[in-house]
Design a protein that fits this description.
Length: about 120
């Protein structure tokens, strides 16, 4: 399982192409809403869950996929970017897992992410 305490893992920028890595995992009717990538790792928001991908090893052929269903979210918190601090942060609290933190860099529409989480968890 991914170490969500390691914040360096989740310095994410929007990247539509990263969604291809999770395509084989998607269920019938499940749609990709948005995807983000760090150096090698990434996160994909779908209509049913958040999928975190940790690419491992020198060649990157080994991957760890963590499925985080919206139905298990009990609360979330968003810190948007500012004038000098361009990073944004999303903290999600899952009923059985605890807190998961994602850090975003660059211009990310945090309101879109809030809508995904609210639409499917409330």
């Amino acid at each position: 399982m991914i170490d969500f305490e390691n914040k360096g893992f989740f310095k994410l920028k929007q990247n539509a192409g990263f969604a291809e890595k999770v395509a084989p995992l998607l269920l019938d009717g499940e749609e990709v809403l948005d995807s983000f990538k760090s150096f090698r790792d990434g996160v994909v928001f779908t209509s049913k869950r958040i999928i975190a991908v940790n690419v491992q090893g020198l060649t990157g052929s080994k991957k760890d996929f963590t499925s985080l269903p919206y139905k298990n979210i009990v609360a979330y918190s968003v810190e948007t970017s500012g004038t000098f601090d361009l990073d944004a942060e999303l903290q999600i609290y899952f009923s059985s897992l605890g807190k998961v933190t994602f850090e975003f860099s660059g211009s990310v529409r945090m309101t879109d992410i809030c809508h995904y989480i609210s639409r499917f968890s409330l």
